[in-house]
Specification:
Blueprint: E1 17-24, H1 31-42, E2 46-53, H2 64-72, E3 74-75, H3 81-94, H4 96-110, H5 114-136, E4 141-145, H6 148-157, E5 161-166, H7 169-172, H8 180-185, E6 189-192, H9 195-203, E7 213-215, E8 238-242, H10 251-263, E9 269-273, H11 279-288, E10 295-299, H12 303-311, E11 315-317, H13 327-334, E12 339-342, H14 347-350, E13 358-360, H15 365-376, H16 379-396, H17 399-418
Parallel strand pairs: 1-2, 1-4, 2-3, 4-5, 5-6, 6-7, 8-9, 8-11, 9-10, 11-12, 12-13
């Protein structure tokens, strides 16, 4: 991440102080959240950060910017168990009725299952830590990313307000299990990062709450992803897929497509960046399909190395069965890579088929194979798609510009709350 010029305060920090609550921070796949936080501060907002879980890497493996943010982030799970118990007890003694009200709300959210009750008791204990931290720092609003249940319980236990971001699959695939209606009802506003997600949020709540649903896309800093534009056509085209190795990401379908291409006389090399529960299965599957020698399992790659991976790539492929609106797709497009992605959820908002990328029918190996074959046989099309892809990202998914929009939302919502 490059150093950014400091903006003068564009908004009113005395009215816009908040806690930015994240499931895990810093995390290698959440670099866009780190960038958004830093932009919000550049715009004059006072943003404190809390994370449920500690960073996903040891301090020595974090970038200098990540280390700086990690040092100033309040990590809930880094609080020793006995200390967390003591702080919960102290909060009960200080405000017993309010504490019990929050505890009952958390148990009610859990439902009848004992396992879920245990989870929600843990969420409640974390919510108490959040509330106490906010009181200590005179913060009255929490904005949650991948941690909305903790924020919701905190808002029912302390005199604070909450909002959260809906990114896609994580919040929308199980509206009942994720308490989506309760989250929306308990929020000052809800940020949707895609128009598709906003439409799904409308299905999860009463019409009276629709005005809370605000569309503000994410983005990337295009200056961080600039292609040298000097790719040469290798004898074996290089494909790149980035994402958690999990069933919903569809990498097994991509392996079948690679095998189909091989059967048609088209040999390609596939690099899978990421890790997860499907890794062993995917390694076995690539061997069964006879393509193991053409598939590289690279694991997670640090942000500083990703540009090199993009630069060494001819086609970027996203075979997912479900998605939100992927940041890695924006990055690949900014690097002027021809991109192939499924025609689902928010992706058609980012890619116009045949103009700045190619879309295939989700879950359809034949459609994926034919789309890859079309691009492999047309270097001119690849060049045109790559050029127009970067133009699309620069125009519509510039992180600084979109964060400015979100900052305006925060100022408007929180100043209205204070009146």
């Amino acid at each position: 991440m490059q150093a950014r010029p400091q903006h003068s305060g564009l908004f009113m920090p005395d009215q816009t102080r908040l806690l930015y609550l994240i499931g895990q921070f810093p995390a290698i796949n959440h670099g866009y959240l780190l960038a958004e936080i830093r932009h919000l501060r550049e715009f004059g907002l006072d943003v404190a950060v809390a994370s449920v879980s500690p960073p996903d890497r040891l301090p020595e493996n974090l970038s200098p910017v990540e280390r700086e943010e990690a040092e100033r982030t309040y990590c809930l799970k880094s609080v020793p168990l006995l200390a967390a118990v003591f702080l919960n007890g102290a909060e009960f003694l200080r405000h017993p009725l309010r504490y019990l009200r929050g505890l009952i709300f958390a148990i009610r959210l859990a439902g009848p299952g004992p396992r879920q009750v245990l989870y929600h008791l843990a969420y409640f204990a974390e919510a108490v830590l959040v509330g106490r931290y906010m009181r200590r720092h005179s913060l009255t609003h929490v904005y949650a990313n991948f941690s909305a249940t903790v924020a919701l319980i905190a808002a029912h236990t302390f005199p604070i307000t909450m909002s959260f971001a809906a990114h896609g699959f994580g919040e929308l695939h199980d509206p009942t299990g994720t308490h989506l209606a309760e989250r929306i009802q308990g929020s000052l506003f809800v940020r949707s990062v895609s128009r598709h997600a906003r439409s799904q949020l409308k299905l999860a709540c009463e019409r009276s709450a629709w005005s809370k649903l605000i569309y503000v896309p994410l983005g990337i800093d295009p200056a961080d992803f600039v292609s040298a534009n000097q790719r040469v056509s290798p004898s074996v085209p290089r494909l790149l897929c980035v994402g958690r190795l999990a069933p919903e990401k569809g990498q097994s379908l991509l392996l079948e497509a690679i095998a189909d291409l091989k059967g048609r006389g088209r040999i390609v090399h596939l690099r899978l960046v990421g890790d997860g529960p499907d890794r062993a299965f995917l390694e076995q599957r690539s061997a069964e399909l006879g393509i193991a020698q053409y598939v590289e399992f690279a694991g997670w790659i640090d942000h500083g190395v990703m540009n090199k991976a993009y630069a060494e790539t001819d086609l970027f492929v996203l075979p997912s069965l479900v998605e939100g609106i992927p940041i890695v797709l924006m990055e690949a497009m900014a690097m002027q890579l021809p991109c192939v992605a499924p025609c689902i959820t928010g992706i058609p908002e980012l890619i116009s088929n045949g103009n700045d990328g190619m879309l295939f029918s989700v879950g359809d190996v034949e459609s994926l194979t034919n789309t890859l074959k079309t691009l492999l046989e047309s270097p001119e099309l690849c060049t045109r798609l790559g050029k127009q892809a970067r133009e699309r990202v620069v125009r519509d998914y510039n992180l600084e510009r979109n964060t400015r929009r979100f900052a305006a939302v925060l100022v408007g919502q929180l100043s209205g709350k204070s009146r």
